Amino acid sequence: MATAVSEHDPQADADAAAAEETVVPREGLLVGLSLTLVAALHAGALQAPFIWDDHPLIVEEIIERRRPLLEYLFQPFWRASEAGPAFRGYVRPVTTLSYVLDATWSGGNPVAFHATNLLAHLVVLFLLGRLARRFGATPLASAVAMLAFGCAPRLTESVTWISGRTDVLAAVFGLAAVSIHPLRALRREWGHPRLRAAVAAALMLLALGAKEVALAFVALIVADEALDVLRGQSRMRHAFGRLVPLMAALLTYGALRARTSTWVPSDQTHYGGPRVLFSLEALGRYAMMLVDFARPRAQIGDVSMLSGSHAVLGACVLVALVMVVARLAGRLRAPSTLEVDGMLLGFVLCLAAIVPVLHVLPMPMNVVAADRFLYVPGLGLALAGACLASRRPIRHKLIAGAVTVGLLATAACGTVVRERCFRSELAFWLTVTDETDPRNVLPLRELAGVAYRAGEFRLAEPAFKVIVERTLARTDLPPGSIASPLTDLADVYSALGDYDRAEFYSERMLELGPGAPRQAFNAALVQLHRENFARVSELCREALAMLPDYPDARSTLSEVPKLVRERNALASGDADPLRRALYFRGIGARLKAQSAFLAVLEQGSVDAATRDLALAYLVSYGDTDVLLDAVRRHPTATRTINEGAMLRRDATREIRAHAVQIMSYVARTRSNAAKAK
Questions:
Q1: Long-range contact list for 248-252, CB < 8 A, 24+ apart?
Q2: Residue environment code for 183-202, b if the CB has 16+ CB neighbours within 10 A, otherwise e
Q3: Which stretches within 392-438 are classed as H helix?
Q4: pLDDT digits (tens, 9 = 90+) for 472-484
Q5: d(CA 487, CA 491)
Q6: Integer distance in angstroms from the first to the last C-alpha of the chain?
Q7: Predicted confidence (pLDDT) per residue in 488-541, tens digit
Q8: Is the pTM of this model over 0.90?
Q9: Which among 377, 399, 369 is positioned nearest to 288, based on CA atoms?
Q10: DSSP 3-state assignment of 607?
């Protein structure tokens, strides 16, 4: 009788176990190395200050104004301090709460905000690598995809700029939701499919609360379920059952938006031509940005000036995409491998994330494209690339490896160079001015803002004035676009104590019709400086009519009766220097308040609390030279005052060191405007 031969080979099992022991640590080493390299590349971001939108979005609205935590859940992402109704369409409570938590545990130190950005970026990389592996990508291909995405220079804006966190947080929760939802590649993992679908839906709701781009991850999940149904690998009712929690999350998010946001008027953004052409231009620019990956830009295109060449390129890209989609459509029903599905879903994620930023709907922004909008599309391309590289054996591995290393090294160098620009707000905007079309005045406006915040009003004034001249010379802009520069110029004249000119420009702004609560409130502040309290009340009520929950206008309106009483008391002969200083501080008269607080300090005997009160005002609103002299003559042990004085000193020195360069740019901008006429 023949003896049956067992198919179980102990030696084979031992070899497989040994292989597993050697492969898993190697894969973990690749992941750890990728994360470490990316962290090292972006570590310099921890030295960066608050920049650009960080000031109104975080410093003014969160650090300087603390509110109950739950209040942040039901407020627009941009509050009244921004440009009006268009910005009230953004609802991002998860991102806002992340800023609040950073501000709470760090005391408003920007290092904490940057650390959160970097940590979130590393989490995205880890989830990207795990998802690629589950779709059949090799460990090496997954690690390369993580590195390529992690050190892409175009994504520096999202990682290094605090306000760019929105896309990163949306990707964290969106990828987590995708990794937990029972996709075909993940269906045999832990837990019941419907339980996992519910957990994924909760994570997707958090992703949507971070930024609207999370809808791209919803599209990925729906596309995966649709593919299963088309191929007969899942029944419609089963797929629908797994999608019910996700639909519930979308309805919850929609209800939150309906409660929090307002309708966005269609004329908030002025396009210099048919919007469909700007959509094509945006598509062309994003295609070029992927090719020119090593040269990030803060300002890309201008919605008031169409670039015909980019629009033509966008049309060509659109035709190519349509042809690819048509070719793939006939093959969707055919069975495929996990790698092919990973490629398809990666492209779905990329397209679903890029379409909303192609100006299909009006976007309240002055540029056509932005680096940060490539964050989620880049994720999709990285996933597709990892799966594509794993689908077939690579020929000429030495050449392919050398090219890959060269591209990664180029990307890493580009990221380091760009990241250094963010370490100084002045350096950042000076760099942006060299990169941007001279007809775009935003970099000049931000440069003037840097000078303004440093107390260098004489340097900010000519810059703001050129912007007003450029804006008024154009006849194609809506009133809201003209009102903002007029408001800026009125603010700088108020800071200089020239209230007549401040009133002139604020009244001219009001003639256009204030398009935002902030503009009406700024006009009220000018009248407050002039002690025209009746007009202050009128303008505050006008701001509150546009935005009833505007805290600045409401608090100022409530303070008016008290300020009137103080003015009358001081006019009757009360010469108490501290009372006079507090009154001038209350009406925002910088120079008068500065003189009054200096008089308080020069009194024969002043207690420590009063001394620190006077010095704290000088830190916030005084002239830098006056501040430094006052701190020298009246030393204090208060850490915040001493640190604030040193920060003001350093900022002022940096501004003054580049004053010639700034004035040269102002002159160049004025000259370009004259030539355009």
A1: 248/201, 249/201, 249/202, 249/204, 249/205, 249/208, 250/208, 250/218, 252/205
A2: bbbbeeeeeebeebbbbbbb
A3: 397-421, 425-435
A4: 877 666 666 778 8
A5: 6
A6: 106
A7: 899 999 999 999 999 999 988 888 765 678 888 889 999 999 999 999 999 999
A8: no
A9: 369
A10: coil
